[in-house]
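Structure in, sequence out. Go:
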């Protein structure tokens, strides 16, 4: 079933989607594709030099760091995801540069807390429904993992403290 056309007041045109997506869909690049691109650049004489830099090692070190965060290789960065099994990279925002993102760190979003599925969807470039599905899956996993374990130790957890020990 096709979604109904709706009127977009901003552009003054009819929109065929239920919701105007501000970003394109994520793009996945395989290891093979990246290796091919690297070889092509090397043949063209383009050499990428990676300067030395000090990367934060703990949340306490990065909490007050510059934003947008430019450490895209961090597992909490929202710009890209790396599949550990295949080595492929998913660019979550293929039409934007990292410095154009409003939110770049998942930990910053988590510390803010209390946001809607719609807001999470906008931050992650996913639909509200997909976020709901992920939430259900995560809660089921937590329920399965917690059987036989005591989770009461986390009742007083404060995400703003670095010294919490359950």
């Amino acid at each position: 079933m096709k979604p109904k056309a709706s009127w977009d007041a901003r552009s003054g045109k009819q929109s065929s989607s239920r919701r105007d997506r501000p970003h394109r869909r994520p793009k996945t690049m395989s290891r093979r594709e990246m290796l091919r691109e690297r070889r092509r650049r090397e043949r063209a004489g383009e050499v990428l030099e990676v300067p030395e830099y000090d990367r934060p090692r703990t949340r306490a070190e990065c909490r007050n760091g510059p934003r947008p965060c430019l450490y895209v290789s961090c597992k909490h960065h929202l710009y890209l995801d790396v599949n550990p099994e295949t080595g492929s990279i998913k660019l979550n925002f293929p039409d934007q540069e990292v410095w154009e993102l409003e939110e770049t760190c998942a930990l910053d979003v988590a510390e803010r807390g209390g946001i809607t599925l719609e807001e999470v969807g906008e931050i992650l470039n996913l639909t509200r429904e997909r976020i709901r599905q992920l939430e259900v899956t995560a809660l089921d996993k937590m329920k399965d993992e917690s059987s036989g374990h005591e989770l009461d130790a986390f009742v007083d957890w404060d995400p703003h403290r670095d010294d919490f020990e359950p």
